[in-house]
Amino acid sequence: MREVVLDIETIPSGRAEWKALVARAPFLQGKKREDSALDWSFGHVICISMIFRDKGRQRERCLAGPEEAALLRSFWAEVRPDDYLVGHNLLGFDLPFLQARSVVCRVKPSRSFDLRKFSKASVYDTMQVWANWDRHKYPKLETLAAILGLEGKSGRGDLVAKWHEAQEWERIKEYCLQDARLARDIYLRMKQYGM
Prior knowledge:
Layout: E1 3-11, H1 15-24, E2 44-54, E3 57-64, H2 68-78, E4 84-87, H3 90-105, E5 123-125, H4 126-130, H5 141-147, H6 160-165, H7 169-192
Parallel strand pairs: 1-4, 4-5
Antiparallel strand pairs: 1-2, 2-3
Helix pairs in contact: 2-3, 5-7
């Protein structure tokens, strides 16, 4: 079974899109467009990093760009039905975001995800496993890395929207890949010592 370490980067709805959404759903008037990056109903996926680990070999792939549907199609073409998915907050963010945005963008997934808590059968979520699925104990990726003595992050997720506006795709890709590498290193440590 191939392991795929996964991380995504998201941005808020575009201004014109948000304005049209507010016109169709007036209850959104009290919400800020800038906060929509973390909401899969409104935000957009602009980068997906994957580290494929199979039989001692490892390969990195990072997809990024302004066309969300094309990005999602490329992602689903890469992911196999029997891949074991690994990441930090996959169950609460990355996987539901990818699923929901695929519906919005009318992109057919190549597989479904088992998003059950308390299971490591097909998804290993380092945040959930570390906290024993207790939401009051969820560590941030950089916090868990620091606890384990691993090198931390070089940026912040809130900068991704600014990098996107400046069309700094290489910077976005490197940041996203760095998060995937950190999640991989945390996962390997946790597995090595019995978690």
